[in-house]
Amino acid sequence: MCHFKSAIYLSKNRDRCFLIALIFLFFISSLFSLEAASAEEQPLIKLIEIRGNKKIEGETISGKIKSKIGEPFSEEILQQDIKKLYSIGYFDDIRTEIEPFEGGLKLIFIFKEKPTIVSIDFQGNEEVKTDDLKEKITITPGAIASPSLITDNVNKVVSFYQSEGYWDAKVIPVTREISGEAVALTFQITEGDKAVIKTITITGNKALSSKMIKKAMKTKERWFLSFLTNSGIYSKEDMEIDVERIKELYHSKGYISVSVSEPEVTFNSEKTKIYIKISVSEGSQYKVGEFGIKGNTVFSTPDILKSVETASGKIFNKTALREDIDRILALYSEKGYARADVEPLINVDNEGKVANIMLSIIEEGIYRVGKIEISGNTKTRDKVIRREVRLDEGDIFNGKLLNRSYQRINNLDYFETANISSTPRADEKLVDLNINVKEKLTGMMSIGGGYSSIDKFMFMGEVTQRNLFGKGLYLSFKANLSSIRTNYNISLNNPWFMDKPISATFNLYNESFQYPNYDKKANGVSIGFGKELSEYVRGNINYTLEEVEITDIAADASSLIKSQEGKKVTSSISPSIWIDTRDNYLDPTTGSRNALHTTFAGIGGDNYFAKGVIDSSWYFPVIRSITFNIRGRFGYASGFSGKELPLYERFYVGGINTVRGLGFGEAGPRNEENEKIGGNRELIFNTEFIFPIAKEIRLKGVVFFDAGRAFDDSENISFAALRPTVGAGFRWMSPFGPIRLEWGYNLDRQFDEGSNKIEFSMGSLF
């Protein structure tokens, strides 16, 4: 009985559900029918016509709208199209008209375009050059006077002013109608005062001093030389870099969990002073726990460990670890493993405060050099660059030789930048080398004047081309004129004579100098050849023919000076050899230069003498870009075949290239008349610390201690007899070459010597 009732109930329920489904389907189909009917009622768009556009192409406008020919007209879509076209920013007014057309309708868009900007000007910019502002904006004459485009460029000008320190700068755009379709745009600028960084405050630091942290930062407080370096100006981008630099500094000291807050920047009410606050949470210091190496088959583990500094028990230093990885990769690259990789696996033990490190080495195979391509050299010929590359196509890849190639190309001093990138071809086991350079001006013409205590008023002129015809030839014309000195010099050097690795030099000169008791005139010509004997060793040999005339000898001059009167010809040959491992010839930070110069006179002529000089200079990186330089120099000269050593061939010690703080020849023998007569031997020592002052303009400072003297035959060489001086100065790697301005203090005044001396020179350093 119960089963029967249940069956009846289910049957009725099924019928009810079926009925509801039929009603739902009928309702849905009705909706579709209504929509279809509605669509059928809307006329089709038969034509879209665009009027009033002069600068904007009709196709461009058609591409922006949804209304299309052949589709039913929709008022809603039309309103969307108008809104879309206004958003482009090119139109002042948009109207639409609808007309019957071929059984449908014609949709007409009528535009009134915004005027064109025909000129752009800046007013009120006194501290910033107009050309600099023009480089920052993207709007140009001919552009549509779109409010959004103008506003965007106003923001660009404001941002540029802020990057220059003018945080209160205001810029108002003003458009002046020239015709109905053209306007002139003027950015009216109120610069305000320049804001400088007054203080940078570090909080939360205990392990590291605020001074140490600030030194690591690119952002600096304003100081008295900021006008040279443009430091003391706030930059958000630099500040973001500084946050990472602070983290890296802490990581190098073992604080691997350090966190640095976003800098808090505030201004004074006038927006002329900026105050920066940085909060640091140092965390704990970690040491190196277990340290191991795996995956190495080319080099043994002990050999690899010799080249790294990271070791168990040391403070964990992420910076040192990266440098260790670079050293390991350098080892492999010297053997041709161009794609070797080192993956540091670091397991941090927070409880024990140690980091367990495993260096996993992926060696891969040996690679050879593929293509060597050169780009960017608009003047310098390919062969001039290619001959400095220490690798040839087909050679086994060698990272050490690649770095040496980079050094040699940069030492040419023809380029602002020179970079070598390598692109591996794994399937062929080849590495392509891409050398990209940016040429710089290598010619120089300078005219100037000056004053010195010796020369009084001076005139100097020079025309030099260090890369003549893009062939690497050096040609120079120099003239120096003063009340007591004249000097004319013509030099030509070809570092690859006849495309061979042999240098050829030619030098022609004329000079005269008025000494206190006599005048000296000299004319000469020299020819020389040189060759690299190995990567860092070079030999030269020069022949010089010189005529010297001593005239106008004072009546009270010594017999030694009087014996030099008249004309004498010197015919000499000068072999020399030097070993130069400096990383940069003009601004070295590491390496050495060791030279032996000899001269033998007597190949004809009137003078017979031999002369030799040993000169050794060493550079050592210390800390924070500080370089220590020590130099020693010893010279010996003697006449032979019954001839005396000429007075003008003796050694005169004193001056910017020997002992600073002393005048020419003051550190040396004098005769009974107190005349500086030089010596036939010299011994000189120079020590100095060179440190950066303004890296942006390559300005450095130097403090030094010098000691040296020339000795006569009758004197014994002794360290106690050396003349000591101390001093300081500036070194500037200017576009015209190294410039030195140095002040020396005489620690052992004798005779009528001054207590100090300021000297200036332009040219190579020690």
Please give a structural write-up.
This protein has 766 residues and is of the alpha+beta class. The chain folds into seven domains: 1-34; 45-113, membrane protein fhac (Ubiquitin-like (UB roll)), CATH 3.10.20.310; 116-190, Roll (Ubiquitin-like (UB roll)), CATH 3.10.20; 196-281, membrane protein fhac (Ubiquitin-like (UB roll)); 287-362, membrane protein fhac (Ubiquitin-like (UB roll), Roll), CATH 3.10.20.310; 373-439, membrane protein fhac (Ubiquitin-like (UB roll)); 515-762, Porin, CATH 2.40.160. The protein has 13 helices and 32 strands. The strands form six sheets. It has a 16-stranded antiparallel beta sheet, with no helix packed on it. Strands 7, 8, 9 and 10 form a four-stranded mixed beta sheet that branches. It has a three-stranded mixed beta sheet with strand order 1-3-2, covered by helices on one side. A hairpin with a 5-residue loop joins strand 9 (264-267) and strand 10 (273-281). The longest helix has 40 residues, at 2-41. The radius of gyration is 40 Å and the shape is globular. It starts with a helix and ends with a strand. The relative contact order is 0.04.
Supply database-style keywords.
four-stranded mixed beta sheet, 766 residues, alpha+beta, Ubiquitin-like (UB roll), 13 helices, single chain, 20% helix
